[in-house]
Amino acid sequence: MSSIREIREFTGLSHKQLADWLGVSKSLVWYAETGGRNLPAAARLKLNALVLLLQGLKAGSTTPVAPGQRLVSNPALLAERHRQKEAFHRRSAAALQRQLSKLQTKRPQLNTRLALFEALRKEAPHWYRVTDADTTWMELTGWFTRDRLPLSGPEQQELLQDKIDTHLASAELHRQRKEKYEGVEGVLGNR
Q1: Angstrom distance (rounded) from CA 181 to CA 185
Q2: Which of 15, 29, 43, 138 could join 39 via S-S bond, C-beta 3.0 to 4.6 A?
Q3: pLDDT tens for residues 128-137?
Q4: What is the average pLDDT value for the chain, to the nearest integer?
């Protein structure tokens, strides 16, 4: 493997970024990487210094993360973030549950209101006379009630329940992650 490719792979530098640092053109770095051209002496010195430093880093303190491992620099901070996310999802689920409870209560109330107005129009008690003002009020209230009825229907209730379930699942995931990071003391932990 060419030293240029090795440096670029391990550092993530682009041809342009490496060329800027070496003081040469991007195309010259590309040609040098593919073996088509040689770099000037000053650029080769910089490149050799990088190669030596890279080899030292590989052999020294930085150990690669094994499969199934995850680098954790501050487990307490991660645990706190997951605690906050868990709390957010639990609060959101509780707020949605209150909304769902209102809808479940509201739907029968709206249906009863419409049935009552219909009965009052058709079968008012003999001692009660429905006035024009009563009729207008019942028509307006009935119109608003019918307009709100679909917003409290089963479909809306199912959507809210789905959102609640999603928030509770997310909260559980964050609870598990929080507990995992609370138990991590070193720099590496299992994923």
Answers
A1: 8
A2: 43
A3: 777 888 778 7
A4: 81
* Amino acid 86: pLDDT: 94
Which of 37, 68, 33, 35 has the alpha carbon at shortest distance from 47?
Answer: 33
C-alpha distances in angstroms, 41 versus 25, 31, 65, 108, 148? 14, 16, 36, 86, 79
The answer to whether residue 137 is domain-embedded is yes
Q: Are 171 and 110 in contact (CB under 8 A)?
A: no
The string of pLDDT tens digits covering residues 57-115 is: 776 655 555 555 556 678 888 889 999 999 999 999 999 999 888 878 877 877 787 78
Q: What angle do CA 121, 141, 104 make, to 5 degrees?
A: 105
Total domains in the chain come to 2
Domain contains 130: yes
Q: Does residue 64 belong to any structural domain of this protein?
A: no
pLDDT value at position 70?
58
CATH number for the domain that contains residue 51: 1.10.260.40
Reading the block at residue 59, the tokens are 């052999």
Q: Is 52 in the same domain as 126?
A: no
Instruction: Look up tokens 């949605």; give the residue.
Output: 96
Q: Which residues contact 3 (CB under 8 A, 6 or more apart)?
A: 47, 48, 50, 51
State the residue range of the domain holding 154.
69-190
